[in-house]
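lol forgot to send this yesterday, sorry. struct tokens for the thing we talked abt
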């Protein structure tokens, strides 16, 4: 997610101070991507360094306001018209966790997958419920439509991740049967002992 361009887009409407930008960002995204005021201020500092915003002045509360520069406006519209690069998987932490748990001693990677699937199912139900509530109110205001679009992106992302986790579960089951992850049950131990008795040996 590009915080830089999100702030540039909000500044298109006019000068803003950091606290207002933070509030408007969360309002537009329905709180799906909360920002800290520290992150907003540090990002504004970088945008100012790069010549994309400039200090407009100080409001009555002593807060510095920022305005979009011509270079910032050009960067914003360039961002709107170019595709978003897909440089890696959207859930790097989850992919890393699965990769490392495959070889981690004492860790059942299939249980890691199952835990994530349960969590994802709960989250997906929450997104779907919120979407239904918004649609029931016939959204017309820009912030309502924006919230709806964010929720539908979260739903699509969760559905895609769910399909990937189902694939992971099936793949792991084919490659690593359940008994490879721990001690065999007593009856399976007995069966294996019987199967490995020399031919003709007495069976107890």
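and heres what i got for the seq, position by position
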């Amino acid at each position: 997610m590009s915080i830089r361009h999100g702030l540039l887009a909000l500044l298109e409407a006019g000068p803003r101070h950091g606290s207002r930008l933070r509030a408007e960002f969360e309002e537009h995204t329905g709180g799906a991507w909360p920002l800290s005021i520290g992150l907003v201020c540090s990002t504004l500092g970088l945008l100012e360094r790069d010549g994309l915003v400039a200090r407009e002045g100080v409001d009555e509360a002593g807060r510095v306001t920022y305005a979009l520069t011509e270079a910032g406006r050009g960067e914003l519209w360039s961002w709107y018209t170019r595709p978003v690069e897909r440089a890696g998987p959207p859930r790097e932490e989850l992919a890393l966790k699965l990769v490392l748990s495959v070889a981690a001693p004492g860790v059942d990677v299939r249980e890691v997958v199952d835990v994530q699937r349960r969590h994802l199912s709960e989250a997906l139900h929450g997104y779907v419920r919120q979407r239904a509530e918004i649609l029931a109110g016939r959204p017309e205001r820009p912030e309502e439509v924006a919230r709806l679009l964010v929720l539908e992106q979260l739903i699509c992302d969760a559905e895609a991740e769910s399909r990937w986790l189902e694939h992971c579960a099936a793949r792991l089951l084919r490659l690593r049967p359940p008994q490879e992850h721990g001690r065999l049950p007593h009856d399976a131990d007995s069966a294996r002992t019987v199967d490995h008795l020399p031919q003709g040996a007495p069976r107890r």
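The chain has a mean pLDDT of 81. anyway ping me if u want another try
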